[in-house]
Amino acid sequence: MSAESDERGEAVERAGSESAAGGTAKAERELGSRAPAFIKSSRTLHLSWQVGVFIVGLAVVVAGIIMLPLPGPGWLVIFGGMAIWATEFVWAQLVLRWTRRKVTEAAQRALDPKVRRRNIILTTVGLVIIVVLVGIYVWKFGITMPWKISQ
């Protein structure tokens, strides 16, 4: 067939072995294009569909990267762009599966009582240090407003 179908077959085998090794009970969606059947029927139409999906996904990912240092939901937009790519590309589907697995593992670790207790203690200690430092600054220099209220 084509290199694309061989690549998809290998990715499906890898995903199948990963899900069997991970012991996930939920069946994962099949890897590959989610394009409508009439688009898949024509190679030229399917290729132009993939180019369009890639460009739209790239625009969304670039917007997310721009939002990282600026105000906005940068990571959420980046994952949205990856989801757009995942509608058509196997590599994006595999990246999203890996990301979803890592986020789930991190959430489980964060819900561990020992980790939660440690995080609460560290946050409390950090807040106490900040309050003490602000108190020392105010005691030493006082609070001066940049405008004159008395006038």
Give a verbal description of the structure.
With 151 residues, the chain is mainly alpha-helical. It is built from six helices and no strands. The chain has helices spanning 3-22, 37-40, 43-67, 74-86, 90-110, 113-141. Helix 3 runs antiparallel to helix 4 (74-86). Residues 1-9 and 15-27 have low confidence and may be disordered.
Short description:
With 151 residues, the chain is mainly alpha-helical. It contains six helices and no strands.
DSSP summary, beta strand count: 0
Give helix and strand order, one letter per element, not per position: HHHHHH
Query: What is the molecular shape?
Result: elongated
Which spans have pLDDT < 50 for at least 5 consecutive residues? 1-9, 15-27
Number of helices: 6
Beta-strand content bin? under 5%
**Which percent range fits the helix content?**
over 70%
Radius of gyration: 25 Å
Q: Report the end-to-end length measured between terminal Cα atoms.
A: 84 Å
Report on the biggest sheet: none
What is the quaternary state of this protein? single chain
What structural class do you assign from the helix and strand content? mainly alpha
Mean pLDDT: 79
List the helices and strands and how they pair.
Layout lengths: L2 H20 L14 H4 L2 H25 L6 H13 L3 H21 L2 H29 L10
